[in-house]
Write a structure and sequence with these properties.
The protein is of the alpha/beta class. Helices cover about 50% and strands about 10% of the residues. The protein has five domains: about 55 residues, no CATH class; about 70 residues, Signal recognition particle alu RNA binding heterodimer, srp9/1 (2-Layer Sandwich), CATH 3.30.720; about 180 residues, Rossmann fold (3-Layer(aba) Sandwich), CATH 3.40.50.300; about 70 residues, Helicase, Ruva Protein, domain 3 (Orthogonal Bundle), CATH 1.10.8; about 190 residues, Methane Monooxygenase Hydroxylase, Chain G, domain 1 (Up-down Bundle). It contains 22 helices and 13 strands. The strands form three sheets. Strands 5-7-8-9-6-10 form a six-stranded mixed β-sheet, sandwiched between helices. It binds adenosine-5'-diphosphate, magnesium ion and zinc ion (ZN). The site of magnesium ion has 4 residues, from α8.
Length: about 625
């Protein structure tokens, strides 16, 4: 039997050190051995090991009548018969009736009985207990023990078969100095911190606010892309205010058993009110807080009940309950409107992806415990990582340190971090992924195609690196980075991006007259972009500025996919998408034909050296008369 599946990958095991599975197997074997011993002992004690012949009570009656019996020893309902010839036999009488009565019933006369000695012995207390109760007790004990073992294994695991109604919130104690997180540990997010300071103030001195009649927000919802530090910031609020922090993730409410979610919510709020002032933090609340209604299947009912219970609990807050509910999600668009109305999660704190300065700060925070070499320039790393989230930067620093440690260096150097950027962006290099000569050629022309299109088209981002070494899922890659940070993207940029994505496909077709499966993900990128241009951003002249889909681009979960636009519009959209893609292909073809010399030069160089850094790459461009992209006069900031 394998119970281990209940136990894997559960963060809750951290608290109570879970028994390693091997030991579990050992203890089962031990238990079985133990019970075998007990059973053997029982058999010996109860004397069932010895073989004493048994007689039927009717035969015994005959023997007594015939005067052949010397003595009968009565122990409970057991009879030990000693015959005149010293033979010993066993018999059993009916429970509850006396021996003499039984014998009379079998026709033994009192005279005959008088000749037989009858000795009645009470079984000793302990023996009696052992012999009579053990047969019943043993299986029960065994079952109990079995469940006890099971529960020990299951404890903390997902199932919690013995305590399903209880909240599984992890509590962070404000006095725990080691795990304490404060605003100092969170870089950037200035506006968010500003918002949350108010909450901290309230938790620190609630009286001040209550005296003046201010209504304190009950709920704060943190939204932002994954890895922007929502969880971290929530912890920091608790740390700043020095209050207990109940941490639970949305999916933990809804587990195997229906009805558990709601009872967990009740339990959690009860606990928090007891510990007030306190923070309840529901991470990834979209797991339960999605728009209600239109649900099908039990899972959704469960979700709705849980959500309802949260709403009920929040409405039931007294002003002096001093419990603040924080929640985090990266899908604020799918949340139920009832959650975000005033009186519930009425504060919304938005966490953006960090900008250049913030990225540098985050890198600094995560560099603290790592010995850095003198050549480290975190500013440069921050410049090279637009679009990275806090979590990406954390993992970048970590990868850098791992690279340095693997090469037995005591310090982390700049080139470790540079390599780490690519690793975080694209996954590890797969140097063992050997290409045949032909594949290598195809990949080289493919990537050169991307690169040249990107470098020639005016609105595409400049190329930083081209490589035909496989990485993650990609056979090769062309790394391009925007010249500067940008929040808005324009139609022209998208059009050039699509052409650049198709550059690999066009290159393969042009050089080899055939297409491989290589460009499949490129085509997906291009198609998705084109579709979004038409349906979301109003960038098609035919459709006009109409948003046909929501920002997720797909029907929401839990709702029956409904066509929001007619068949006619749908046909037009498809036509527009293929027109944009075809335009992209034409523009890529034009570039690659016009700059065929540069294109083949890059591809040949790639076959030779496999990776081209920006400098070498740009040298080849200049030789073939392609202008390099320059940063526009940067505004002073
Ligand atoms: P989210 O909950 O938004 O997905 P997390 O709060 O779990 O992201 O962030 C993951 C990790 O990324 C954090 O533990 C932290 O190490 C790092 N991180 C994210 N944002 C920041 C930040 N602003 N400052 C410092 N570290 C950050
Ligand atoms: Mg999180
Ligand atoms: Zn490609």
């Amino acid at each position: 039997m394998d119970f281990n599946f209940l136990n894997q990958k559960n963060p809750q095991n951290k608290g109570k050190k879970g028994q390693p599975p091997a030991k579990f197997g050992g203890s089962i074997a031990g238990a079985i051995l133990f019970f075998m011993l007990i059973t053997a002992l029982y058999l010996v004690v109860s004397g069932e090991g010895k073989v004493i012949p048994e007689v039927a009570i009717s035969d015994l009656a005959k023997s007594v009548s015939a005067g052949e019996v010397k003595n009968i020893l009565v122990e409970g309902d057991k009879l030990t018969i000693t015959y005149n010839n010293d033979e010993i036999k066993k018999a059993k009488k009916e429970v509850g009736s006396s021996l003499s009565q039984t014998l009379f019933n079998y026709g033994v006369t009192s005279q005959a009985l008088a000749k037989t000695g009858i000795e009645i012995k009470n079984e000793s207390g302990f023996m009696f207990l052992l012999l009579n109760i053990l047969p019943f007790l043993l299986p029960i004990v065994f079952i109990l023990l079995f469940f006890w073992y099971l529960s020990r294994q299951v404890k903390g695991a997902g199932m919690q078969a013995f305590s399903f109604g209880q909240s599984k919130a992890r509590l962070t104690d404000p006095n725990d100095k080691n795990n304490r997180v404060t605003f100092k540990d969170v870089a950037g997010c200035k506006e968010a911190k500003e918002e949350l300071k108010e909450i901290v103030d309230f938790l620190k001195s609630p009286k001040k606010f209550l005296d003046i009649g201010a209504r304190i927000p009950k709920g704060v919802i943190l939204t932002g892309a994954p890895g922007t530090g929502k969880t971290l910031l929530a912890r920091a609020v608790a740390g700043e205010a020095s209050v207990p922090f109940f941490h639970l993730s949305g999916s933990e409410f809804v587990e195997m058993f229906v009805g558990v979610g709601a009872s967990r919510v009740r339990d959690l709020f009860k606990m928090a009110k007891k510990a007030a002032p306190a923070i309840i933090f529901v991470d990834e609340i979209d797991a339960i807080g999605r728009t209600r209604g239109g649900g099908f299947g039990g899972g959704n009912d469960e979700r709705e009940q849980t959500l309802n219970q949260i709403l009920v609990e929040m409405d039931g807050f007294e002003p002096n309950d001093k419990v603040i509910v924080m929640a985090a999600t990266n899908r604020p668009d799918v949340l139920d409107p009832a959650l975000i109305r005033p009186g519930r999660f009425d504060r919304k704190v938005i966490l953006d992806l960090p900008d250049r300065a913030d990225r540098e700060e985050i890198l600094k925070i995560h560099a603290v415990k790592k010995p850095l070499a003198e050549d480290i320039n975190l500013k440069l790393i921050a410049e090279r990582t637009p679009g990275f989230s806090g979590a990406d930067l954390y993992s970048l620093m970590n990868e850098g340190a791992i690279l340095a440690a693997r090469e037995n260096r005591k310090k982390v150097f700049q080139f470790d971090l540079i390599r780490a950027i690519e690793k975080v962006m694209l996954g590890p290099e797969r140097k063992s992924h050997l290409l045949s000569k032909k594949e290598k050629e195809i990949t080289a022309y493919h990537e050169a195609g991307h690169a040249i299109v990107a470098s020639v088209l005016p609105h595409a981002d400049p190329v930083h690196k081209v490589s035909i070494i496989a990485r993650g899922n990609a056979g090769g890659y062309t790394l391009k980075l925007p010249l500067e940070e940008r929040r808005l993207q324009s139609k022209r940029e998208f059009i050039d991006d699509i052409a650049m994505s198709l550059g690999g496909y066009v290159a393969e077709k042009m050089i080899f007259g055939d297409i491989t499966t290589g460009p499949s993900s490129d085509l997906q990128v291009a198609t998705n972009l084109a579709r979004a241009m038409v349906t979301r951003w109003g960038m098609s002249d035919v459709i006009g500025p109409i948003a046909l889909v929501d920002s997720g681009g797909r029907p929401q979960y839990g709702e029956i996919a409904e066509r929001e636009f007619s068949e006619t519009v749908s046909t037009k959209v498809d036509a527009e998408v293929s027109r944009i893609i075809n335009d992209g292909i034409k523009s890529a073809e034009k570039v690659l034909t016009e700059y065929k010399k540069a294109f083949t030069a890059i591809a040949k160089k790639l076959i030779e050296v496999e990776t081209l850094e920006q400098e070498e790459y740009e040298k080849i461009l200049t030789v073939h008369g392609i202008m390099l992209k320059k940063k526009e006069e940067a505004p002073v900031s």
